[in-house]
Amino acid sequence: MSPFKGQTGLRRILNAAGYSLDGLSAAFVGEAAFRQLLLLNLLLIPLAFYFEVSRGERALMVGVCLLALIVELLNSAVEAAIDRISLELHPLSKRAKDMGSAAQFVALALISSVWAVILLG
């Protein structure tokens, strides 16, 4: 058992919330892509409530936007872990970073396609 998993109950939940806020703060301060995607979400999510679409369609429009933020957080985490291991150029490091970037590309394509299908019907 990990020595870092010692907390239980409410203390564990509070610690987890603090770690999550630390992660969001680190992404906002250190990742331009996260800030750009956050700005896009601040535009698109209210816009989803402007259009006359069903509740399910609106939930999907908002959900794919939030999914792209999640993917960006995971992509940034992969990049940070790779850089922590070594800044040396290595084919496996490049592959990991490229795959994270590809995941974000797919998430952005998902936003575009979902919004297009819903709005253009």
Automatic annotation (TrEMBL):
<feature type="binding site">
    <location>
        <position position="58"/>
    </location>
    <ligand>
        <name>substrate</name>
    </ligand>
</feature>
<feature type="binding site">
    <location>
        <begin position="97"/>
        <end position="98"/>
    </location>
    <ligand>
        <name>ATP</name>
    </ligand>
</feature>
<keyword id="KW-0460">Magnesium</keyword>
<keyword id="KW-0443">Lipid metabolism</keyword>
<dbReference type="GO" id="GO:0004143">
    <property type="term" value="F:ATP-dependent diacylglycerol kinase activity"/>
</dbReference>
<feature type="transmembrane region" description="Helical">
    <location>
        <begin position="33"/>
        <end position="53"/>
    </location>
</feature>
<keyword id="KW-0479">Metal-binding</keyword>
<feature type="binding site">
    <location>
        <position position="79"/>
    </location>
    <ligand>
        <name>a divalent metal cation</name>
    </ligand>
</feature>
<feature type="binding site">
    <location>
        <position position="19"/>
    </location>
    <ligand>
        <name>ATP</name>
    </ligand>
</feature>
<protein>
    <recommendedName>
        <fullName>Diacylglycerol kinase</fullName>
        <ecNumber>2.7.1.107</ecNumber>
    </recommendedName>
</protein>
<keyword id="KW-1003">Cell membrane</keyword>
<keyword id="KW-0472">Membrane</keyword>
<keyword id="KW-1133">Transmembrane helix</keyword>
<keyword id="KW-0997">Cell inner membrane</keyword>
<feature type="binding site">
    <location>
        <position position="31"/>
    </location>
    <ligand>
        <name>ATP</name>
    </ligand>
</feature>
<keyword id="KW-0418">Kinase</keyword>
<keyword id="KW-0808">Transferase</keyword>
<keyword id="KW-0067">ATP-binding</keyword>
<feature type="active site" description="Proton acceptor">
    <location>
        <position position="72"/>
    </location>
</feature>
<feature type="binding site">
    <location>
        <begin position="88"/>
        <end position="90"/>
    </location>
    <ligand>
        <name>ATP</name>
    </ligand>
</feature>
<dbReference type="GO" id="GO:0005886">
    <property type="term" value="C:plasma membrane"/>
</dbReference>
<keyword id="KW-0547">Nucleotide-binding</keyword>
<dbReference type="InterPro" id="IPR000829">
    <property type="entry name" value="DAGK"/>
</dbReference>
<keyword id="KW-0444">Lipid biosynthesis</keyword>
<comment type="function">
    <text>Catalyzes the ATP-dependent phosphorylation of sn-l,2-diacylglycerol (DAG) to phosphatidic acid. Involved in the recycling of diacylglycerol produced as a by-product during membrane-derived oligosaccharide (MDO) biosynthesis.</text>
</comment>
<feature type="transmembrane region" description="Helical">
    <location>
        <begin position="102"/>
        <end position="120"/>
    </location>
</feature>
<dbReference type="GO" id="GO:0005524">
    <property type="term" value="F:ATP binding"/>
</dbReference>
<keyword id="KW-1208">Phospholipid metabolism</keyword>
<feature type="binding site">
    <location>
        <position position="72"/>
    </location>
    <ligand>
        <name>substrate</name>
    </ligand>
</feature>
<feature type="binding site">
    <location>
        <position position="101"/>
    </location>
    <ligand>
        <name>substrate</name>
    </ligand>
</feature>
<feature type="transmembrane region" description="Helical">
    <location>
        <begin position="60"/>
        <end position="82"/>
    </location>
</feature>
<feature type="binding site">
    <location>
        <position position="12"/>
    </location>
    <ligand>
        <name>ATP</name>
    </ligand>
</feature>
<feature type="binding site">
    <location>
        <position position="79"/>
    </location>
    <ligand>
        <name>ATP</name>
    </ligand>
</feature>
<dbReference type="GO" id="GO:0046872">
    <property type="term" value="F:metal ion binding"/>
</dbReference>
<dbReference type="InterPro" id="IPR033718">
    <property type="entry name" value="DAGK_prok"/>
</dbReference>
<dbReference type="GO" id="GO:0006654">
    <property type="term" value="P:phosphatidic acid biosynthetic process"/>
</dbReference>
<keyword id="KW-0812">Transmembrane</keyword>
<feature type="binding site">
    <location>
        <position position="12"/>
    </location>
    <ligand>
        <name>substrate</name>
    </ligand>
</feature>
<comment type="similarity">
    <text>Belongs to the bacterial diacylglycerol kinase family.</text>
</comment>
<feature type="binding site">
    <location>
        <position position="31"/>
    </location>
    <ligand>
        <name>a divalent metal cation</name>
    </ligand>
</feature>
<keyword id="KW-0594">Phospholipid biosynthesis</keyword>
<dbReference type="Pfam" id="PF01219">
    <property type="entry name" value="DAGK_prokar"/>
</dbReference>
